[in-house]
Amino acid sequence: MEAVGPVKGAGVTEREAEILALIARHLTNAQIADALFISTRTVETHVSAMLRKLDLADRRSLARQAEAVPGLLVKSGSRVLPVPVTSFIGRAGERAALAAALAEHRDALARLAVTFARLGCPYQQARTARMAAGPLAQEPG
Q1: Which of 47, 57, 99, 137 is positioned for an S-S bond with 130, CB 3.0–4.6 A?
Q2: Tens digit of each residue's pLDDT (9 = 90 or more) over 84-141
Q3: 3-state SS assignment for residue 6
Q4: What is the pLDDT of residues 10-53, one digit of tens each?
């Protein structure tokens, strides 16, 4: 990570600058962690690193230092959303098409299983019973 902005001389990273801005708003470590989608322990580590880098004694001094840095404070209520884990977020049409294709395929398999069951295949009779029980039914093992 690269040092940024008005605290560049102190070697504060971008993430530490974000945390410093939230400390200036007098948020707790838990609130900062929630706002930045990181763990509380990670926030504690960044706070300790900044105290060491800026040669400050405590969190209050850190908050005063942050308040004195122009342009560091973030606007109240601004919250960065995490990057989506899957590309299916916001793709309702594609999800519906996928669900329909799966349902159609399952219906075709069920019809095939019923046909085999009618022919008297014991394995297929058991499979048909499991399929009727639902998708989470366990196969014998």
Answers
A1: 137
A2: 556 656 677 777 887 787 777 777 777 777 776 666 666 666 776 777 766 655 555 5
A3: helix
A4: 678 888 988 998 998 889 999 999 999 999 999 999 999 999 99
**And the tokens for 83?**
């990057």
Alpha helices in the chain (DSSP H): 14-24, 29-36, 40-53, 59-68, 92-118, 122-133
13 three-state secondary structure = strand
Q: Is the pTM of this model over 0.70?
A: no
The end-to-end CA distance of the chain, in Å, is 51
Cα atoms in the Cβ-side hemisphere of radius 13 Å centred on 26: 2
What SS3 class is residue 128?
A: helix
Instruction: Tell me if 72 sits within 8 A of 7, measured CB to CB.
Output: yes
